[in-house]
Amino acid sequence: MIVVLILGWAVLYADRTALYPLLSVIAETLGISSAQAGSITSAYFLFYVLLQIPSGLAADRWGTKRVLLFMFALSGAGILGFGLFGNTFSLLLLFSALHGLGAGAYYPCCFGTILATVPPEKRGISSGFIGMGMALGILGGMAVSGPLYEFFGHYRPPFLVLAVPTVLMLFAFIRFLPDTRNSSGSPSLSVYLRLFKDRDIWKINMATFCSLYGFWAAATWGPTFLQAERGFSLSGSGLYTGLIALSALPGGVLWGRLSDRFGRRKIASIVLPASGAALFLLTRAQGAPLIVSTLLLFGIFSNTAFSPVAVSWIGDIVSKRHPGSMSAAVGFFNATIMSSAVIAPLVSGFLRDVTGSLVPAILAGAALMFAGTVMLLLTPDTVRERAE
After folding, report:
1. Is the torsion defined by CA of 259, 264, 265, 270 positive or negative?
2. pLDDT digits (tens, 9 = 90+) for 162-207
3. Fewer CB near the terminus (10 Å): N or C of the chain?
């Protein structure tokens, strides 16, 4: 089960991040602005975010496996359409939105399954292992899109190649995933209302939003930053930005395991500001060795390393205060935090259009990461409460 869920995340993240090294190519080919190019990724994440809570509610009611299979098939149709028909700005927006719509169910179904089936003392490390799929997908998508573009001479073929493993994952889900659902049926409206009003859940959500804003500012526009402002090639810029994911592979498992042992708040309040500091250093780094080192450092503390701690923290709170609504809680969590992926590409593209540089956009992401740390310090640590 864990292996299949890891592979599912890897495929989805490869599909979405393959676009980032090609943003400048698409803008030049279609004659659109940087803000418009950024809106292609924002269209994906807008519908991705909109589906988080509804798909979590559906998974609580009808089962995670059934919802995941149907929506993953929609995601595959979106990436296939992107590669076959995405020759205008409007069609790229349309198929990017369809891909995001289908992918929107994966997070609540995946983590809803994990948090409902593993014991509390293993939630952090289990979530960390799932995060490995995100890291592998980011690295793979960014590493292959540039070479595939240079081989085929067009930005669409890379997405046709990626559509193949996306469709094949459906057969793996059918064969290996359990179907978790509430034996007593879907929780009442009052249970969900209490969940959505929980202040501690809101604090964790907003702190993780700040973390992901900085991450997506770096991930979506990082390749363009390296190309335009640091002299990297198209292939090299995608590969080096993908290094964020390489160092996040051990980071997510490490921080998740340490949070199981020492508490979510203690580990999170170290990881998040360290991530902000590394992002700040990226704007000052010159020369390939220092830039690569900074990207590796950022990856150790970034989204795929921090999110397993945060989602496990959510799982602790929900199992204690709001039983039976785990998938909805995970959907609520991911809807809040992934709205950063809608906002960050647009704002970053706008700041580049206004200033002529991506440095202000990256600095804004670093500042938000420091701000999110304050909210974490105001949230009770459920792991420590349980130990006591």
Report:
1. positive
2. 999 999 999 999 988 877 766 555 667 787 888 889 999 999 999 9
3. C
d(CA 319, CA 113): 13
The model's pTM: 0.72
Cα angle 375-195-275, degrees, rounded to a multiple of 5: 30
Residue 319 gets the label, from left (phi > 0), alpha (psi -120 to 50) or beta, of alpha
- Would you state the structure tokens that stand for residue 56, as one six-digit string? 């979590």
The alpha carbon of 98 is separated from its chain's Cα centroid by a whole number of angstroms, namely: 17
Q: How many CB atoms lie within 10 A of CB 151?
A: 11
DSSP alpha helices (H): ranges in the chain?
A: 2-17, 23-30, 34-50, 52-62, 64-85, 89-103, 106-117, 123-152, 157-176, 189-197, 199-230, 234-241, 243-262, 264-282, 288-301, 303-321, 326-355, 359-377, 382-387
| Structure tokens belonging to residue 2 | 């864990």
Task: Report the SS3 class of residue 284.
Answer: coil
